[in-house]
Amino acid sequence: MRTVITGGAGFLGARLATRLLAAADTADDPVDARRVVVADRPGAALPPALAGGHLDHVEVDLTASPEEVEELVAGADAVVHLASVVSADAEADPERAWQVNVEASRSLLAACARRAAGCRVLVASSVAVFAGSHLASGDETKPRPRSTYGMTKTILELLVNEATRRGAIDGRIARLPTVTVRPGKPNLAASSFASGVFREPLAGVDCVVPVADDVTLVLIGAHTAVAGIDALLRVPAAKLGPDRGVNLPGLCVTVEQMIAACRAVGARRGVRLGSIAVRPDAAIEAIVASWPARWDARQALALGLPADASLESIVERYLDDQVLVDR
Ligand SMILES: NC(=O)c1ccc[n+]([C@@H]2O[C@H](COP(=O)([O-])OP(=O)(O)OC[C@H]3O[C@@H](n4cnc5c(N)ncnc54)[C@H](O)[C@@H]3O)[C@@H](O)[C@H]2O)c1
Fold first, then answer.
1. Structural domain containing residue 276
2. How far apart are CA 59 and CA 234, in angstroms?
3. First-residue to last-residue Cα distance in the chain
4. In angstroms, what is the span from residue 198 Cα to ligand 1's centroid?
C-alpha cells in the first residue's frame, strides 16, 4: 500500500503521516502496512518525529511541475490532498489561491486518474464553503462561500465529485471545522486566534483575540481531525453517496467559552496564564462572520467518525502532546 499526503509537512499532514506510520509499524492487516509519501513544497521542513520509518519525502511545488506530480501519485493506493493556501492568505492573494487550491488540485486529480486510476483521493475542504447562518450547515446545505478561500474549496469539492462520478477516482471530501490547538507560531488563517487563545496564555504569553467574545466558531481538536480524515479514507465507497462531502464533527463554541476553557484547564494544571484581551479587528471579524456558527455532522457520526467530547478535552490533549514534544 502506498499513501501520498500532499501538504504533508503541514499541521495536519505531518500528524496524519505520524498516525499512518504508527499503524504501519504495528500492522497485522496488510492494508495498514503501507508506505507513506510526504510531499510538500521545496524547503518545507519535516518535523523531526517524521524521520525514518517507511516514510518517503518528496519536495514538489504542485503548481510548478505536472510531470513531478504524475510521478508522485503513480501507483498510489490513496492520496490525501491537504496542500492549500489558507483563508486570510487566500483573501490577500486570490490569484495564488486559485493556482494552488483549484488549478493544482485539478492537475493532481487528473494525474491520479491517469496514473492511479480508481484510487482513493481524500481532499480537505472547510466550513468556509458555507455562508454564516443561524441554521445548522449540513452535508445537504447549499455551498454559498463568502470568501476567496471558501470559493476555491467549493470548486475543489465539485471537481472531486465529478471525477468520482466518472469513475476516475474514489473521492472523499473531509469538510473540516477550524482545527485547534495548532502549536508554534500564528499562521495566515483568519481563524489563527482559535489556537492562539489557548496556546499563548498557556505558554505564559499575552494574547489578543481579534473578534468579539460572543462570536461563535465550529471547532475540532487536532487529534480528532486527523483520526476523522483517516477514518473517512477507510470508509467503503458503497457507504458514500454521489456527493462525497462529509462535515467532520465539530463543537459550536463562543470565544467567551474558549477563554473560559483555557482558564479552567490552566487552573487545573497550575499554569500561570498570559493575559487574554479581546480587541476586534474588522477584517478578521468579517471573514469569521461569513462562516457557519451551527454545524450538522450527522453523516460523519453515522459513518463512525470520531467527535471531541469537550473543548477542555481538546486543550488537555494539546498540553499532553506538548509534554511529549518537550521530552
Ligand atoms: N487547520 C485548520 O483549521 C483547517 C480547517 C479547515 C480546512 N483545513 C484544510 O486542511 C488542509 C491542511 O491544513 P493545515 O492546517 O495542515 O495547513 P498547513 O498550512 O499547515 O499545511 C499546508 C501545507 O501545504 C503546503 N503547500 C502549500 N502550497 C503548496 C504547493 N503549491 N505545493 C506543495 N505543497 C504546498 C504548505 O507548504 C504546507 O506545508 C488544508 O487544505 C486546509 O485548507 C484546515
1. 180-218+252-293+308-326
2. 26
3. 33
4. 21
